[in-house]
Amino acid sequence: MKELRTVLALVAREKKDIWFSIVFGVLAGLTTVGLFGASGYLISKAALAPPLYTLIIVIAMVKLFGFTRALGRYVERLFSHRATFTILSHIRTRFFEMLEPEVPHIFRKYRSGDLLARVIGDVESLQNFFLRVYYPPIVLVIVFLSTMIFTTFFSWMLALLFFLGLVIVGVVIPFIATLKQRKSQYSVREGRGILSTKLAEWLYGFRDLKIYQKQEETEADLRKSMETYEAAHERQQLQMAGGEGWNLLASLTATWAVVLVSVWQIGAGELDGIFLAMFIMISLMVFEDAGPMANVPRHLEDNRNAAERLFSLPGQTGRHSGDVSLEPFGPLSFSMENVTYSFPESLTPVLQDATISFPAGSKTAIVGASGSGKSTIQQLLLSMDVPEAGRIKVQDKDMQRVSQESVWKEVNTILQESHFFYGTVRDNLLLADEDADDRRMKEVLERVKLPHLSPEHPVEEKGGNLSGGEKQRLALARIYLKPARTWILDEPFSSVDVLTERELMQDFWETAVHDTVILISHNLKGLEQMDNIVVVEQGQVIEKGSYEELMEWKGYFYRMKQLENTLIG
Amino acid sequence: MKEWNLLLKKEWKKVSVIVLAALLLAVSIIGQGYLFVTIVDRVFVEGGGLSAVLVPLTLLLGVLWIRTGVSTAIARTGVRLASRAKRMMRERLLHKISGASVGESGQVEAGRRVSVFMDAVEETDSYFSGYVPQVIQSLIVPLFLFVTIAVIHLNSAFIILATSPFIPLFYIIIGMKTKEKSEEKVEEMNELSGKFLDILQGLTTLKLFRKAKAQKETIETSSLRFRDATMEVLKTAFVSSLMLELISMLSIGLIALEIALQLIIFENMNFFTAFFILILAPEFYNYLKQLGFAFHTGRTSMGAASKVFEEINKPEDGMQWGEKELSLSCPPHIVLRDATHRYGEDGFYTGPVSVDLTPGKNLAIAGRTGSGKSTLLHLISGLMPVKEGTIEVEEEDLHEYREDEWMNHVSYISQDPYIFSGTLKENIIIGAGGRSSPEEVETALRKAGLYELTQRLEDGMNTPLGEGGRGLSGGEKQRLALARAFLKDPYIVLLDEPTTGLDLETERILSESLTELSQHATMITVAHRLHTIREADEILFLEDGRVAGQGTHEELFGTVDEYRRMTTASQGVEVQ
Ligand SMILES: Nc1ncnc2c1ncn2[C@@H]1O[C@H](COP(=O)(O)OP(=O)(O)OP(=O)(O)O)[C@@H](O)[C@H]1O
Ligand SMILES: Nc1ncnc2c1ncn2[C@@H]1O[C@H](COP(=O)(O)OP(=O)(O)OP(=O)(O)O)[C@@H](O)[C@H]1O
Ligand SMILES: [Mg+2]
Ligand SMILES: [Mg+2]
Q1: Where do the ABC transporter domain residues begin and end (chain B) (predicted)?
Q2: A125, A281, B465, B525: which could join B469 in a potential S-S bond, CB 3.0 to 4.6 Å?
Q3: Domain harbouring A167, CATH code
Q4: Which H or E run includes A219?
């Protein structure tokens, strides 16, 4: 039940609605039993031709019970459903809270379609937790016990029968049902997750699958997963219908036993015959709500499963933020001292013993072969991860002790791949500055050579309707709106043509004259003006210095320049 | 909805099982009432003992068991029907997606589509598992009960007749509102899914703009909005069931009053009849009430279903493919005649483009960013339909061929290749239809300059990549996509800026491999680093979607200003 603890804590936040649901549930349950019991009594009484006023009293009672029952049910449903859906929203937010610090590391373990299935499907299935597992048994037991107490005034035997019935319907049959369920290994929840994951992947990789003519294969594979899921789901539903069937059988048989015992007791003179009809009616009603009890353990198991999938994402792979803040607003300085960093699956570290310093206001270029670790340096400087060994300092403070948010506040960065959100250009620009008005947006769009995009221009998921270069320029527009004076840019113009690149660069350098700039680039042109060039090769810093120094050195950088000359001429 | 009726027709056997079961159910309900009343009558009124009721008691047990069996059979058949229907819808959705074209309906809105496929379809479940069986039961059982009541006591039947028209009235009220509201609910659900997936994918970006924490509120608001939409749907159900309850209670009260009067004042009715009616009448109303609730669920399902069918029946914008085969032993002859394309109604317009791609030709497409280069590649690859003009392959319209016949000969390395969740090896052999030996894969990896990477990995080529696996650097992803092409070794190679994000050294290795590939393939390369295309047989220079120049490097250099400026700029020489 450990998994459900978080859910229980979130359920407890809706105390008022829970109380209302239980109180009105009990009220409705009791009045139902009362209503039918009284009408059974009424009819028997009427047969004896009693004085009219006794009948009128009983009839009035029946009416009163009827109204109370209808209203009780209404209120119970209203409150219990409202509570349920509020609880679901709590669960969703909590899940997101847990997830947030784990990104991006979480994608090494989980796929986004899977996470989606969790936050939608698993959360939805938890609605049964409150609506079927949590409070109905409480209501049922209270109603049963009240009925039993009422019955003891007439017959001990009947009360005992009711109790036995409750045990069979509420405990024995559900228990047998769980045993049966344990046998099936395939979990419907997981099946749903698999299906959703595969579908999301199919949609994301749609173009590549189409080119390689894999979409039919994928479709067939998805169809198979769908069949498996659907079959398991069907089996589960059938089992549930079966469970309810067994409970119905037990309930009706119990009612039958009530009739048998009553008749026998009446014969023995231990019970007045006038109550026979009443007990038949009571018994029929009190067992009516017991049918769903058969599936309570099944729902519970399903909920446990869902809760586990939701709240047992491996925690703490992400990095914990420190709490020291940086002094606001100014170009930052960074330094890396003997930094080593590796990903779990690699044999060699991605960065090895790297020592680089980035003084405030300096301009540094990081160059090197593809896969040599340049973007990793960016990740570390952005405090997205902590090095295995060595130290990273920002403003001479240990990065691990500085709050991530305050680093992000002071840094304008472009990742190698920028994400754009579904919506409009405006929505995407507002991320950087909530107060930016249209005039400013147009200004900045103009500045990054995107005058044809208005703030209203739609943007599809992942910027799907923009060209490669447009995405890069929009990413630049986004950070231009944010007032920070440290720039860490990972190949910001790799998909932009030379002419545009040159205009953008010129403009950028004018903006950032006094700022700290770290530029990752494959383009070796224009590096003459950089204060410092760092050459990375297979995770190691093999050369660093100014342009002249490196050319003098006649090492890797020099060779690359030579190569450039032969290629581009 | 037509599809559903068809399904019901096809599954007529299951429907008849429900009908039969409902008939049995009606009989057993009446029998059960009759036996209860008989027992009470004999014991209470006639003062008989256990022996007097042994027969009815035994019969009663049998009837109760039959009732159980019958109800369970109905429930189980409903479950089976629902499962059929859901399979049918999901299959059609899959089929629909797989036929879509890339630009307009592929790829986009993944979250929303997943939600339609998973949740909206699930929502339709109750139509077959709840509504249909209930309608059948509620048509049959009350009818039997009514006739029985009319036979034993006509007055009660009149009261029932007088009050029951109110009940359908409420169905109508439910019906009017519920479907719309449930459509809204499904929409909210889709939006919630879409939003979540988008936020999840962009969470790193959100963090860097310090907006990640704020997304908690977005999620919360969306899911509260979803709650409110759900409650709107449910409230109508609750209110109407309250109303139905009150109506049926009033009616039962009227019947009871009438019976009491008959029994006591006029003394022309016996206890047996009175009790029998009093047991049957609530059952009658019960079935009508349940129908009300089922009607509500039915309408809710229909709301969801209309969303599903909306998706299924969305007008096709995909490529229309023919049936022709395309077997080649050398690169095909491809001709574009005034081919154009437009995104949506008034989106970006590309073309007209005319170009003759003789077998083995090396075409380059150049132009400034956003000038329509990638769009043109999409057209040639057959991923997007041309609007006007034609693309001919071997003197036949491209659309005459079967899709796979064409695609089998094409490799397309896009600007942002997708890395599937799977091993490195799987990610590469996807290009060659899975029939490659380990040696071939290794060669392809070498050509792409990725072999060293696999040596550095614990699991080598079996390292899982993509979501749920290891990440790759930008250039590695690009090279992985190239490795797919090297392995496939097709007749037509489309490259969208193949050397983006690569250092010069890696680029040099690749250009050798690409030259080798071009020996027996038609190559179409998009590039803005112009040095890579100087050797091309023909260069198409695009400006704002239009062809601004067409010819060899020398020709363009002489005639097209923009082209000259770009080439010289990439050499680092300022032009005036
Ligand atoms: N998420 C990840 N998980 C595991 N390994 C990774 C991950 N991201 C990158 N790597 C590996 O770390 C190494 C360095 O990657 P990085 O992204 O820093 O390279 P890069 O220098 O930026 O290359 P490029 O110029 O191609 O972008 C590569 O070998 C890459 O495969
Ligand atoms: N799916 C789409 N829907 C609507 N418009 C689009 C879509 N894809 C691209 N566009 C628009 O079409 C124009 C041309 O885009 P395209 O991707 O062909 O440019 P490109 O020449 O490849 O540019 P780049 O060099 O920047 O990649 C752009 O203005 C872009 O916004
Ligand atoms: Mg990188
Ligand atoms: Mg492009």
Answers
A1: 334-569
A2: B465
A3: 1.20.1560.10
A4: helix A215-267
Between positions 251 and 280 of A, the ones with CB within 8 A of B are 252-253, 255-256, 259-260, 263-264, 266-267, 273-274, 276-277, 280
The reply to whether A341 and A298 lie within a common domain is no
pLDDT of residue B574: 42
**Alpha-carbon gap: B271 to the closest alpha carbon of chain A (Å):** 6
Kindly state whether residues A13 and A116 are assigned to the same domain: yes
A54–chain B Cβ distance below 8 A for any pair:
no
Higher pLDDT pick, B172 / A349: A349
Provide DSSP, B55-102. HHHHHHHHHHHHHHHHHHHHHHHHHHHHHHHHHHHHHHHHHHHHH--T
Q: Kindly state whether residue A187 falls inside one of the protein's structural domains.
A: no
Average pLDDT, chain B: 87
| pLDDT tens-digit map of A54-111 | 777 877 888 888 889 899 999 999 999 999 999 999 998 988 888 888 887 888 888 8
Number of domains in chain A: 2
Pairing of strands A363-368, A516-520: parallel
Q: Which of A282, A312, A342 is the last residue of a domain?
A: A312
The string of pLDDT tens digits covering residues A396-413 is 999 989 988 889 999 999
pLDDT of A185 > 60? The answer is no
In a domain? residue A295: yes
Q: Which residue, judged by its Cα, is nearest atom 25 of ligand 1?
A: A370
Residue of B nearest to A405 (CA): B210
* Residue A274 domain flag: yes
pLDDT at residue B169 tops 80: no
Span A414-424, pLDDT tens digits: 999 899 998 89
Query: What kind and span of H or E run contains A535?
Result: strand A532-537
Interface of A with B in 281-340 (CB under 8 A): none
Q: What is the pTM of this model?
A: 0.88
User: What's the topology of domain B334-569?
Assistant: Rossmann fold (3.40.50)
Same domain, A418 and A507: yes
Q: Are B502 and A371 in contact (CB under 8 A)?
A: no
Q: Tell me what pLDDT residue B575 has.
A: 36
Structure tokens at A153: 């005034």
- What is the Cα–Cα distance from B414 to B431, expressed in whole angstroms? 13
Same domain, A544 and A511: yes
Q: Confirm if A567 and A523 have CB atoms less than 8 A apart.
A: no
Domain residues for A46?
A: 2-182+241-312
User: Which residue of chain A comes nearest to B48, CA vs CA?
Assistant: A267
As a whole number of angstroms, the distance between CA B381 and CA B398 comes to 10
Residue ranges covered by each domain of chain B:
1-153+300-316, 154-268, 334-569
Mutational pocket test of ligand 2: of A418, A460, A466, A496, the residue with most ligand atoms within 8 Å of the beta carbon: A466
pLDDT > 80? residue B541: yes
Residue A369 lies in a domain: yes
Predicted pLDDT at B104: 52
Q: Indicate the Cα dihedral angle A264, A270, A276, A278, nearest 10°.
A: -140
Query: Same domain, yes or no, for A276 and A390?
Result: no
B452-502 residue pLDDT tens: 888 888 888 898 888 877 888 989 999 999 999 999 889 999 999 888 878
Identify the residues whose C-beta falls under 6 Å from ligand 2.
A 464-470, 495; B 103, 343, 347-348, 367, 369-375, 415
Q: Inform me whether the pLDDT recorded for A305 exceeds 80.
A: yes
Shared domain check, A546 and A498 = yes
pLDDT in tens, A198-245: 998 888 888 888 888 887 888 899 999 999 999 999 988 998 899 889
What is the distance between the alpha carbons of residues B263 and B350, in angstroms, rounded to a whole number?
90
Flag if B571 and A568 touch (Cβ within 8 Å).
yes
Mean pLDDT value of segment B547-553: 92
Crossing angle of helices B271-312 and B154-163, in 10° steps, is 30
A129 with A31, same domain?
A: yes
Work out the average pLDDT over B304-309. Answer: 88
Residues 6+ apart with CB under 8 A from B221: none
